Amino acid sequence: MSEMLKIGVLASGRGSNFQSIIDNIESGFIPAEIAVLISDKADAFAIERAKKHKIESLVINLKNFSNKDLFYAHIADELQKRGVELVVLAGFMRVVGKPLIERYNNKIMNIHPALLPSFPGLHGQKQAVDYGVKISGCTVHFVDEGVDTGPIIMQAAVPVYEDDTEDTLSERILKQEHRIFPLAIKLYAEGKITLTGGKVCIKSGRENGILINPPA
Ligand code: GAR
Asked: Phi/psi of residue 36, each to 5°?
């Protein structure tokens, strides 16, 4: 039997996406193992989740490095030391630096709470409400050096209602995040995601990377 894909997760906060990945690994849906959780915040709730599931966790604080490149090089070292093959950004609230992107070229996945290329950066849900779009959603994509600009792997759409606030829309989108992120990781672990000419192709009979307002 071949070894399972080794995942490293980076998270800055609550970690509900991290939890959904843990749950989907434990249920056998994702054929992978989490080698380490790395957080840039010592008080991130994601760390508690790691402890509960006996996953090694590290806090790597930017303040302990003289520049961002050294910070990201150190993160890459820790990931490589543990044989991590895919890096998953589960609510990692920083723009990833070159040293990590170069060592994990097209091997870093992020979840963003908007339908990219609309509303990149922080507060994607608030940006959607403020703009007045009628449909928003979430996007799983590979990470490149831009801000939420890498190749799109999978998206899910949700309606935006007139009385939505950032909070109500975030909640609706989050439910879809917890569906498509594990699905994208599963397909990657099964070798069904390929990149050609900067575009992602999903080799699977049923999943074509589009989930339009899928039922909860
Ligand atoms: C999620 O909504 C995720 O899409 C977003 O942060 C939240 C983290 O929640 N990420 C970004 O905005 C990245 N630019 P979680 O900690 O409960 O997974």
From this structure: -165, 150
